[in-house]
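Summary of Year 1 activities. Much of the first year was spent building the evaluation harness for sequence design. The harness presents a backbone, in tokenized form, and records the residue chosen at every position. We chose the following record to illustrate the format because it has been used consistently in internal testing since the harness was completed.
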């Protein structure tokens, strides 16, 4: 790992064809992300406020659960983040800011 990475010590899991905790959490995280996307679509197509509110509540519950699963995986070292280079961040910011300014002209 490079010195710009942010991670926790990796929890080792059994290797082989049998599923392990990391496999189960990866699958759960993937399913939760897909469900969130589908609920966003459902919210945009909801025919009334009651239905929209129900979809929104379910979406928020899924989003919270997805975050908890991600944080659990991060604590076990199964997710690693990299620190972004300040130059890249500044360049991206300038580009997006210029596009924003162009929209407002």
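For this record, the design step produced the sequence shown next.
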């Amino acid at each position: 790992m490079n010195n710009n990475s942010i991670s926790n010590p990796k929890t080792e899991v059994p290797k082989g064809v049998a599923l392990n905790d990391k496999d189960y959490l990866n699958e759960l995280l993937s399913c939760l992300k897909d469900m969130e996307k589908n609920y966003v679509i459902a919210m945009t197509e909801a025919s009334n406020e009651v239905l929209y509110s129900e979809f929104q509540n379910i979406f928020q519950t899924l989003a919270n659960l997805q975050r908890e699963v991600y944080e659990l995986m991060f604590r076990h070292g199964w997710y690693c983040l990299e620190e972004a280079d300040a130059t890249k961040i500044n360049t991206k910011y300038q580009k997006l800011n210029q596009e924003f300014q162009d929209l407002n002209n």
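Residues 5-103 form one domain. Quantitative recovery figures across the full test set are reported in Table 2.
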